[in-house]
Write a structure and sequence with these properties.
alpha+beta; Heat Shock Protein 90; 2 domains; five-stranded mixed sheet; two-stranded antiparallel sheet; 7 strands; 17% strand; globular
């Protein structure tokens, strides 16, 4: 994965409630957010997902419909008697419009993943993995959780982080194998993503690199601290323990 440098190594630390509290390597726990702040963060994540849905609806009801209409008109024109050069240009335009239609469907799916809404987190991650396998590395997905028992903000964050990590593994790290795992931990759920790609040197990657900054941001909004390890030629590992209240 192509990413920004990792923060200090973190390890999980227990609390009296059994809910994991992120802790730094020096053993000092990262202060938990007050209840009001935590509620506000959850509201922010839900608002972001709603905005993604609105954008998806706009693409579906606007751009995608115009593309479909133009495609229908051009296909109908092929029934007319037209010169071969003109027919070739129309056929090329039809091909490009079909590509645009497929891209609009992909964008809608990434903004508003139907599997996440309709079937739960496990099925949604399975769909991401299948998509990644189609044009990228061999991806293995294992889990020992019940997807319908995960709160919506946590499930949405896990989905988006997995989506970003798989994209990084395909586009930047040129990984051949990626492993995605979801497993329960005391007081929460652990997401682990490992690849055998090119890796990176944390000391030479700008801190504002968007990929892992987005992962850090989403995790920290939910009180989790990502553990990110990488090195040139050693692949990349992302591990996050999300606190979940049952």
């Amino acid at each position: 994965m192509h990413a920004s440098p990792r923060d200090e190594t973190t390890v999980p630390s227990g609390t009296d409630s059994g809910r994991p509290t992120p802790a730094r390597a020096d053993g000092n726990a990262i202060p938990a957010a007050p209840p009001r702040a935590e509620a506000a963060l959850h509201h922010l994540l839900e608002q972001q997902e709603r905005e993604r849905q609105l954008v998806a609806y706009e693409i579906h009801d606007g751009l995608a419909q115009y593309v479909a209409g133009a495609l229908m008109h051009l296909q109908a024109s092929l029934g007319d008697t037209i010169a071969p050069p003109t027919r070739q240009r129309i056929e090329e335009a039809i091909r490009l419009l079909r590509v645009a239609a497929a891209e609009s469907r992909r964008l809608i799916g990434s903004l508003r993943p139907p599997a996440l809404e309709e079937q739960g987190l496990v099925e949604a991650i399975s769909a991401l993995v299948a998509e990644a396998r189609a044009d990228g590395p061999a991806v293995e997905f294992s889990h020992s959780i019940s997807g319908d028992a995960i709160p919506s903000p946590v499930g949405g964050a896990i989905y988006r982080i997995t989506q970003e990590a798989l994209a990084n593994a395909r586009r930047h790290a040129r990984a051949r194998h990626v492993r995605v795992a979801l497993e329960p931990v005391p007081g929460g759920i652990r997401l682990c993503i490992r690849d055998d790609g090119s890796g990176f040197d944390p000391a030479t990657v700008p801190r504002d690199r968007f990929g892992l900054e987005g992962i850090r941001h989403r995790a920290r909004l939910l009180g989790a601290e990502p553990r990110i390890e990488s090195g040139p030629g050693r692949g990349t590992s992302v591990e996050i323990d999300f606190p979940v209240t049952r």
